[in-house]
Design goal:
46% helix, single chain, globular, six-stranded parallel beta sheet, Rossmann fold
Length: 384
Amino acid sequence: MRILHVCAQAPAFNSGGALCVYQSHYALTSIYEEVDYAGPHIENEDIAKKYKKCFYLDSPINKFTKIDTLLHFQFDRSYPNWKKAQIPINDYDLIYIEFTKMDYVIKDILKASFKGKIIVRAHNIETEFYRIEYQNDKSLLRLLKYKSSYEKEKFMSQNADCLLAITDQDKESFINVYKLDENKIRVLPVGVNELNTEEITGVINEKLNCLITGSLWFGPNSDGAKWFIEKVWPYVKDICELTLAGASPSEEIKRMCMIENIHIIESPKTMVPYFKKADMILAPIFSGAGMKVKIAEAMSYGLPVVTTEHGAIGYKIENKKNGYICKDEKEFANAIREYFDMDVTERKEFLKSERKLYEKYYSLNAIKNNVFEIISDILSIEGK
């Protein structure tokens, strides 16, 4: 079977979106031999060589092409180069598209009278994502992206043979907002590769090294970081050191971090050293769609997670057994103190339970098995 993997973002390890694309890449290329790629340039050669052929869609574009792109309400660099690539669509049995904003891809697929199957992987509710972006930056460009996102997402959702939502909540949103048949929607959660294969030790340090990650220009991440420093930090500062590591923090956040035992790392090239140094990951998130990839990453590193009810959406966390889910600042502070007070044996049991959860649902092998099952089901339905 020949598959075309179409992406608005290249598979990589440097952001949540890129990691989600990578998990699809891993699943598809592990199961099937003939998988081609169409999307932005892949910098990691080990990833690129897993594909049989790559159609790169991010070559330079001129001002006339930019104007054409905007006139068609397209906002990613792949649009004009998709037209130029002349990909032989009908050579494929399955086209697997990442994100619900590449409506021009499905329009061309339909024009070509494609006889295969189309899967669309929704990383979140794009309309909600762009709404939050516009709230943070009320520019004309953000407004156009927000207003056009609904029709793009609706068209892609309705014309896919199968839509992969990232959480049960997103699945319900797609059904209600875009009037989709629930039978055409499956849930495929976030999955990441195992980043710490060392034996769980439950080591105890004098203080907990706590880490908050994420793009700090993005409203839900910056709001959560500010909430934690204002509402929770005063009650845990005696037992913690805090590191905020993320892209483009505001001047307000920088000022808030100018106190003892709080460190800010602006736009780190890699998060690896900060995860390795951390004893605990904090995810104070109160809004936004999709799953928070940082939680799966924390699990893959064998680190305990303290988050909110919203941050835990999509995860099968059992509160106080393999993670902490908190309703308010009091519960958040108490969760940090509870873990701090555990002895080595208690910590090891807690982290082993978390590791089992990760391996069963959020490891790359778990995602690969899910993808194989989904594709097999779609093809078997066709044959009935």
